[in-house]
Write a structure and sequence with these properties.
Oligomer: single chain
Mean pLDDT: 82
Strand content: under 5%
Number of strands: 0
Low-confidence stretches: 1-8
Length: 118
């Protein structure tokens, strides 16, 4: 269970349950890169060592990812998740110092389960 403390308008829309619903349902459509970024951020969010300011950025990015309506609707083939990737990548870069190898490894393991070994 991760803290649901956002501090942004998107943060109010984030919940762990809605994150897992979106990421498991649309993993193959969103693609490995989007899912790996989202999962790495998710695992960093749950880490007690991640500072509150970083958690606020992460919650905002994950909330944007799970929102059904965003800049480029997710239903648009190929382009639908490009804005999500941009937001996730920006958040990842902003909090990179707090994303530990255990977060990225946990994300990679989940990706292997969903997509198979690559």
């Amino acid at each position: 269970m991760v803290e649901q403390n956002g501090g942004s308008e998107f943060g109010e829309k984030y919940s762990e349950e809605s994150f897992w619903q979106k990421v498991t349902k649309y993993a193959k459509i969103a693609g490995k890169e989007v899912c790996e970024k989202a999962l790495s951020l998710y695992y960093a969010l749950g880490d007690k060592d991640t500072p509150l300011w970083a958690k606020s950025i992460i919650v905002g990015a994950l909330a944007y990812f799970i929102m059904p309506f965003d800049a480029i609707p997710d239903a648009i083939p190929v382009a639908g998740y490009t804005d999500d990737l941009g937001v996730l990548a920006a958040a990842f870069a902003a909090v990179a110092v707090h994303i530990k190898s255990k977060h990225t490894e946990a994300a990679r393991e989940k990706i292997k389960q969903w997509f198979g070994a690559a």
